[in-house]
Amino acid sequence: MADTVREIERKYAATDRTGLPDLTAVHGVAAVVEKEPESLDATYYDTAALCLAAHGITLRRRTGGHDPGWHLKLPVGPYVRDEIQAPPAVQLPRELAGLVRSRVRGAVLVPVVRLRTRRVRRQLIDGDGVVLAEVAVDTVRAERPGGAGEAVAWTEIEVEAAAGAGPGLLDAVDACLADGGIRRGDAPSKLARALAGTGLGARQGESPGAERRKGGRSAAPPTAGDVVLAYAREQVREIVALDPAVRRELPDAVHRMRVATRRLRSTFRSYRAVLDRTVTEPVGVELRWLAGELGADRDREVLAARIRDGLAAPGGPPCAGPVRDRVDAWSRARRSGARRRVVAVLDGQRYLALLDTLDGLLADPPLRKAAGKAPRKVLTKAVRKDFGRLARRMAASPAAPAGEQRDLALHAARKAAKRARYAAEAARPALGGRAGRFARRIATLQQLLGDHHDSVMAREALRELAAAAQEAGESGFTFGVLHGREEAVAADRERELPARWAKAARAARRLGLTG
Question: Model-level pTM?
């Protein structure tokens, strides 16, 4: 079983003659405890094209030190990485292999560089004996497997905050080191420095296939195609980057990945004048499949949370019978094995083939004639068309008979709102702040319509729960009360719609989408 450690560290340039200043000068540090020197031997793995290093990801197998084994480091933010650790083994553990699969695809992971390090650690201790941080002086020698290229050696200082340390601690240590003449290092990681020093290199932030699209880029003014493709690439990067987070069940990861797939599919549909639909429509089918697979269990989870919130709300209904237990059981009925199913999808050939297809599409985009034109007119026309669809559906929904038909009409309006919003988000670099304000107005309308739809789905779930309770000889009273409250919520949202829609329509006029 792999363990995860949040690593917050900074690196500093040094030589074998660099001395550390008195670190007890750092506020809160009462003592500095030097540990026995350690000898570390790490082999780093990547594809031949260095796909992992290109995204700031490191994968190594290390011996020596206090944490030998496999280490996978995934970037979280500046100076912050999640390190997933697995015990020593000859082969890469399956869990870690899965976490890099969206980057690696079918490529083979091979040793790319070996680092041998002599490390001297110093622990910064507070007055209660708690470790605040570690300062390590590392003397490193890097070489490529088989002796290829030149070996390179250097010394660096690494400062890592302990779990629970205050956010200002690293800044305070930084200031103390600066007072001692020690400055930040240029390389983001040992691996990056080793690759550069031994004659290898990684193009930070590129995805597989990026090298295929470098040709043909110029400093010319952006075209409609440039703007649309930039937004599409952003969504593909999001899908690939969120893959490990979904596997690790990090909060909101599934939802964000679904949104990225929907944004990308919507972009293909909205900008058919820019991208050839005969190429993008089959890809859109696969994106819809992926969103459905990701959301199958999350939708029920969201509904269960909504029902629990209703039970826990101030003035909530009395629980007649084992109501909470029944809601929990209903939620678990579909969630059982949910993670295994999602991981199976992410490991499957259909998903990996979709990622390859997206890379190929972006590397050699199926551009139409309009893609080469100035963006304002082309993109405005596309956003106008999507807004017109939304306007027609908003106009039709009040006329629909109350009940199921109106619910369906409002749900159709909600889907149209999403598409108009995503189209405006994609166009914002060309259309400016008014497109951003329009997208925000549409987002608030979409939120209201979404709450209405969630109420519809919650009522359906409550009827199912009430029927199951009655069949088991339990009271369905509580579920009936919640059902009535959800009806009231839906009615409230319908009353709020005209004002919310009026604001969106004004934003559309300012953007030039209406006459």
Answer: 0.88
